[in-house]
Structure formats: C-alpha cells, structure tokens
C-alpha cells in the first residue's frame, strides 16, 4: 500500500512487490525578516538505501545520502528581486561538483516572475551548471511566490490583510483556477474594485 493509500498495480491488476531504493526530498522554508525582504531556504537530498557503485568515478559507497544541497536566497518585497544567493553542497558524488557553487550568484538582480523558469534553465542547464541545483532553484522559486502571498495574507494583531499591489501576473495562467478568464482572477478584480480608495 502506498503511504498515501494509493495501491501500486501493473496492467494485470496484481499488487507489485516494491523495494524502496531511492528517495529525493526537497524542502523549502520561507521567512519574514522584519524588513521588506523574504529569505527563502531550500534543501535537496537524494538518498540510496543500499550499497552502490558510482560508475563515473568507479567507487563503491555505503547506503546513505548521495546529494545534499542547500541554497539560501534573499528577495525584495514585492518585486521578488533576488538580492543574494548562497549555495552549499555538504554531500556530492564528487568533489568537482562543488566547482559550480558560485554560479548561483548569476541569480543576483533577477526577479522571480513569468519567464524565470526559462532563465534558470539557460543559466544553469546542461554543462553550465547542475541539474539537481536547477531543480532546487525552480522548486524554491515556486515556493517563494507562495511565501510572498503568505506574507500579504497573514492575519496580524490589530490589522486586517489587504489585497497587495504586488504584480499578480506571476499567478495568472499558472494553473487551471488562475487562468485569465477563471474564477480566481475574476474575484481578485472584484475585490480591487470594491476596495475603498481603490489601488491602481
């Protein structure tokens, strides 16, 4: 039985025998700073559950972490401009992997907005970077958008959340419910129109 209650089956409808051999975990945390900045902290781990060989370096290794990457980004609010990016690689298959640590500084000055995914793939794709670090950056950028709207929607003592002037284009057409002609966009438009002293 799958941990979420979904049974794994093949075409014949019989339960498959499964042995866990690999697990990837990506965790992203978003922090307020008391200034007009957010700090986004991300971690990616790849774990193998049996002794294995890294064929590229010809080494046998024990079960455990194969990758452990960490990235911290500081972003402005509401522009989502990256002020700083710092990467660490505590666990990598080979020491040479760490040679691309400093490449994350290419993110400095860029904004998380529509088109950011393509920018990241150009900056860090193929031989220019690390596929695992690219995956982590993309997961963090998506979570950062949630962090921004969490910041604006937080209920604080003595104040009610207001609809921010932040650019909503990063959400429009990002999913079915946020489609241009969908219900969420329509409700946001109505809320803006109803606000006292409507913000433009």
List keywords for this structure.
four-stranded antiparallel beta sheet, 2 domains, globular, 200 residues, two-stranded antiparallel sheet, 6 strands, alpha+beta, single chain, 26% strand
Write the layout of secondary structure elements.
Elements: E1 22-32, E2 37-48, E3 52-54, E4 59-61, E5 64-76, E6 82-91, H1 116-124, H2 131-153, H3 183-194
Antiparallel strand pairs: 1-2, 2-5, 3-4, 5-6
How would you describe the overall organization of this protein?
- The chain is α+β, with helices and mostly antiparallel strands.
- It has 2 domains: 22-161; 167-200, no CATH class.
- 22% of the residues lie in helices and 26% in strands.
- The strands form 2 sheets. It has a 4-stranded antiparallel β-sheet, covered by helices on one side. The chain has a two-stranded antiparallel ribbon with strand order 3-4.
- The radius of gyration is 21 Å and the shape is globular.
User: Strand order, biggest sheet?
Assistant: 1-2-5-6
Beta content: 25-35%
* Element pattern in H and E: EEEEEEHHH
Question: By helix and strand content, what is the structural category?
Answer: alpha+beta
Main sheet properties:
4 strands, antiparallel
Mean pLDDT: 86
Work out the number of β strands: 6
* Helical coverage, percent range: 10-25%
Q: In the residues, how many domains can be counted? A: 2
Output the radius of gyration.
Answer: 21 Å
Q: Could you list the spans in which at least 5 consecutive residues all have pLDDT below 50?
A: none
What distance separates the N and C termini? 52 Å
Number of helices: 3
